[in-house]
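Before going further, learn to read the protein records used in this course. The integers have meaning only within a learned vocabulary of local backbone shapes. The record below shows the convention in full.
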Amino acid sequence: MKKLQFLAIALALGVSSLFGGVYKVDPSHTNVTFSVKHMMISTVNGEFQKFDGTFELDKKNKLIALSGEMEVESINTNIAKRDAHLKSDEIFDAKQFPKVTFVLDKIKGNKAYGKLTIKGTTKDVVLDYEFGGTVTDPWGKQRAGLSLSGKVDRRDYNITWNQALEAGGVVVSEIVKLNVEIQGILKGDDEF
């Protein structure tokens, strides 16, 4: 009986540390989206369709590192004219600043502290953090999921284009909501 208990404990400890390590972001199961108020009455959503990144979990599945980059040219709001404007020098200036990046500094509770760089400007941000867990997929690969969300003021990144409305307010809100749903595959299980 004691041997079975020891084996169960050893197996449990082995499984919990099995998922620690470096994960590569799986782009087919990850979403990098944003939303912003338009005309102060509705919300416009968009996404970055091309991105890359890695994150690291310790043996207790605590997030200890994360870095990612999004390609500005991959912005998609489902309106070609709007996408072209977002990529222009009035907004993101994709030619001069082709990437948006995020680097994690630390996790404290359910908050992720890090540095967000847009248009060559880096600012400290605090995002809501949720760890989704770890799992072995049907093909034997170790996967982990996590979420980051929050708000940034686009003016902090020199994205200031706007137009005033006759009735008051502006065409585009200064506050942008971010939502990132990440799934990664443990290094060695993917094809780094």
